[in-house]
Amino acid sequence: MTAHYATTATPAGPFTAVVDTDGAVLASGWTADLGDLLPVIHSTLRPTAVEERAELGAVTRAVADFHVGELTAIDDIVVRQRSGPFVEHAWDVLRTVEPGKPLTYTEYADLSGRPAAVRAAAMACARNAAALFVPCHRVLRLDKSLGGFRWGLGVKEWLLAHEAHTIAS
């Protein structure tokens, strides 16, 4: 399978998305290096070839729109990831977390139906290959500190501030 990728300039830095032949996001994040994204795609979904494109249609539009304040632009983008049942469910749950209303890992575990599975919920965030479209940046530590983020705490901080500011406007 040949996938496509494109990099878009954003206020938080370059953003690259890798999409399947049908346009579903396989991996994405704030990087210009395709090598940062391919290893996080599940082995059963990993493309055999990847071709660069100038843009990826609806995916590129959603990235641009989100970064200028249309926070729901990412909601209808199809994402394709694989893992165990709880992690896949937890990723679906992440897509329901509203912008500007971040959760703690404890609240996220509870929302995912397994209140005692805080570590598993955190692991779901850490293994999320489709950053932005599966908004793991909306999950914080119990003390409301940022915790980790594959794309750097500066990007996570920018995203949370962008969402909070856009909602407040």
Automatic annotation (TrEMBL):
PANTHER family, per the entry: METHYLATED-DNA--PROTEIN-CYSTEINE METHYLTRANSFERASE (PTHR10815)
Keyword Membrane: no
Catalytic function, reaction form: a 6-O-methyl-2'-deoxyguanosine in DNA + L-cysteinyl-[protein] = S-methyl-L-cysteinyl-[protein] + a 2'-deoxyguanosine in DNA; a 4-O-methyl-thymidine in DNA + L-cysteinyl-[protein] = a thymidine in DNA + S-methyl-L-cysteinyl-[protein]
Transmembrane stretches, start-end: none
Keywords associated with the record: DNA damage, DNA repair, Methyltransferase, Transferase
GO MF annotation terms: methylated-DNA-[protein]-cysteine S-methyltransferase activity
PROSITE patterns noted in UniProt: MGMT
Species per Swiss-Prot/TrEMBL record: Tsukamurella asaccharolytica
Protein name: Methylated-DNA--[protein]-cysteine S-methyltransferase
Residues covered by the Methylated-DNA-[protein]-cysteine S-methyltransferase DNA binding domain: 85-164
InterPro entries: MethylDNA_cys_MeTrfase_AS (IPR001497), MethylDNA_cys_MeTrfase_DNA-bd (IPR014048), MethylDNA_cys_MeTrfase_DNAb (IPR036217), WH-like_DNA-bd_sf (IPR036388)
GO BP annotations listed: DNA repair; methylation
NCBIfam families: ogt (TIGR00589)
